[in-house]
Amino acid sequence: MILVSACLAGICCKYNGGNNGIPLIKELVKQGKAILLCPEQLGGLPTPRLPAEIKGGSARDVLQGKASVVREDGADVTENFIRGAREVLKFCQEMGIRRAILKSKSPSCGKGLVYDGTFTGKLVEGNGVTAQLLIDDGIEVMTEEEFKKIC
Ligand code: SF4
């Protein structure tokens, strides 16, 4: 069983109420090979919601209390992001899930590149908070872009 970001499976859980649905991912879910979760919703955030970015450090810094996740209006949503990430990790551990396909560039799900905290569209090296927690647990994480290349 593979974990997938819910928005990649067509669920409208994106910050703007939309989704990032990809037919290949939807097919995995349909065939019972993948299960979908949205860490931001699991962390208690509503949909739609204002966009958020990691600020002042990396996702690992966020998890260690040294950096934060802030909304576009300046509100601190770090606790929601950490709570959502922990819920996803707990679910993966309980279900024995060791692989995940997560949405690129998201402050929760991104792997390799995330926005830099200035809300200017600039990307920096790094992971989203949930992706980081899963990677640190040894779960194999790939983005939907990486997945498309191997299919
Ligand atoms: S938190 Fe992840 S699953 Fe939820 S909308 Fe953002 S990228 Fe998609």
UniProtKB/TrEMBL annotation:
It comes from the Bacteria. This is Uncharacterized conserved protein YbbK, DUF523 family. It comes from Caldicoprobacter faecalis.
